[in-house]
Amino acid sequence: MGGESSSMEERLERILFDQARIRECIAAMGARITADYAGSELTIVAVLQGGILFLADLVREIRLPLRLDSISVASYHGGTVSSGTITFQQTRLPDVEGRDVLVLDDILDSGRTLSAITARLREECSPKSVRSAVLLSKQVERAVPIEADYEGFGIGDEFVVGYGLDYRGEYRNLPVIGVLKEEWIRIES
What we know:
Elements: E1 12-17, H1 19-36, E2 42-48, H2 52-59, E3 66-74, E4 87-88, E5 100-108, H3 112-125, E6 129-138, E7 150-155, E8 160-161, E9 177-180
Parallel strand pairs: 2-3, 2-5, 5-6, 6-7
Antiparallel strand pairs: 1-9, 3-4, 8-9
Helix pairs in contact: 1-2
């Protein structure tokens, strides 16, 4: 497996997106969101933990007054494959009544998380509208038929880490997005 002193970058099979490409993508997305929501009362609801870095960089590219909130859910529970169960980890939902809402998540894969969040916000919070933005969209068949309104990069069916994406709580702080080497993924029991 390699020594404990291996840097995180050395644990990547390959880098998919470097810092410059990520910044360029987020700037373009921010400009599009700014144009689409001009004159609106926008609230961005970030999905924690993975969406934090994406949120921080994207809101600096949106040239509108807006509110920020967050929601915490779990679906991976430490592994590399979604468990299929979405667990809301808080009892209070964001106050978005009458507002345009943009749900922000790091990655769209099975569709379960994004679908559950947007449905719950629509049903329980009376927003004016609910749309979504993801940095990564896996080009796979979804378990739930949903696509993001704003999408940064399309990727294959690979397990990626970095820029907020983690494996068992680690690698979120990598400034790039890359594919984790198999040898660094613990066998699921």
